[in-house]
Amino acid sequence: MKKTMILALIVAFIVSMLFIGTSCKQEETAAEEAVAEEAVAEEEVAEEETVAEVLPQPPIAILINDSPWFAGFDELVQNYMDETGNRVILNVTPFGGMLEKSRNAVQANESEFDILNLNESWYTQFYSGGLVTPILEIDPDFELDPNIIEYAYATRWDPEIKYSGPNGEIYGLPINGNIQLYFYRKDLFEEQGVEVPQTWEEVKEIAELFNNPPDMYGFSIRAVGGNWEYQTYMSSYGTNVVGLDENGQWEVGMVSNPDAAIQATEMWYDLGTNYGPENVAAMGQAENVALMSSGKLAQIHMVSAAAPNFQNPEGSAVVDKVGAAVVPGGATTSGIWVMGIPHNIPDERKVAALTFLKWALTKEAQLAYARAGAIPVRQDVYEELSDDPDLGWWMGAMADSTPIINPWFRIPETAQINEVIDRRLGQLLIKELTVEEAVNEAGLEIYNIMVDAGYDLKPLED
Fold this sequence. Notes:
Elements: H1 2-53, E1 60-65, H2 70-84, E2 88-93, H3 95-107, E3 115-119, H4 124-128, H5 135-138, E4 156-157, E5 169-170, E6 172-176, E7 180-185, H6 186-192, H7 200-210, H8 227-236, E8 243-244, E9 250-251, H9 253-256, H10 258-275, H11 285-294, E10 299-303, H12 307-310, E11 322-325, E12 332-333, E13 337-340, H13 347-360, H14 363-371, H15 379-385, H16 392-401, E14 405-406, H17 414-429, H18 435-452
Parallel strand pairs: 1-2, 1-3, 12-14
Antiparallel strand pairs: 3-13, 4-5, 6-13, 7-10, 7-11, 8-9
Helix pairs in contact: 2-14, 7-10, 8-10, 10-18, 15-16, 17-18
């Protein structure tokens, strides 16, 4: 009897364990099914949201400049059309014709273009004049993704300060994120145990080390049209060509801080004349790209968009030999493009234009844009591509440069100011002027341009 009871208890225990195991398994399976169903539901919601964001839209026309990064933009547009079915027409125009075409478009009864690509040096005249539509007027719920780089608020216009600022309303969205980088021969640096420089004085020391013309030049400057790069030297030394001071008053750095301007100009002149080619006054952007690609240049500070040239085996002798870093001195200058939507088009065309811009600035679209050879405008894209086997060598430097971006001067008088800088620096290079004379004379000319245009500047000191 006792054995029978024990046997019955054992059987009951085994059965109960089997029941518990089955019950647990059923609960686990049910939980897994619930998670799976929830995931499917989330995917369906995400798909619905994506579809809702890119609804069928009327065709749009974009005025875009012909540039080295146009191929990337063209692929971005093709991807948009393939993904959404919405049509985009591109009017590709040389840089020299962009401003006139943009002005004509916004002054007509109705613009022929739905999106204008506006250069950093003259977008403010379109913002200040209300010639492009504030984004919130088109979509009151629009929020700028924090990963989109604003490039010292080039997206905004603040009527209180009559300039771009953090409190301004959004009028444009960035599409090309050109800044300046420092490029160097990493193979030579590694051979000599040289560290990437952090200051211009260190750049000069490295230039001295490698300078062996005509086989190798220690450094080169952009003299033809070099006002953009020159601005970075000014920023590095704590001044500017033109800008707002800490109190929001306009100033001309060559006048308000001449000592710093002279130091910056001396460094620019020293690097170019002592360590660059003899024809320094003829060195433009294309010439410097060619010099670096030839293997005869140790280091240079220039536009970030030059990077792909050094990896092109058809035209470069330095494939896999060039590194990129943040510009020494703690400053870089933007040279970007923003896209604005004309004020004088029907609302449905404005919505269609903004639909394209929203899509174009998404992370996935920008990743493809970068891989197609363009310069993206998202910080998370730069950070992700920092580990890319093909692009990481310079995308990491782009990511690191974001906190030190300084704006190019963004006023209607920019063209006049650039002419003064290029002319006076040209006179310096051919020794018609000393460094001090070039700075003083350029500063006075620019000051008078600003005064004549009605800017409130600090009075000149006697």
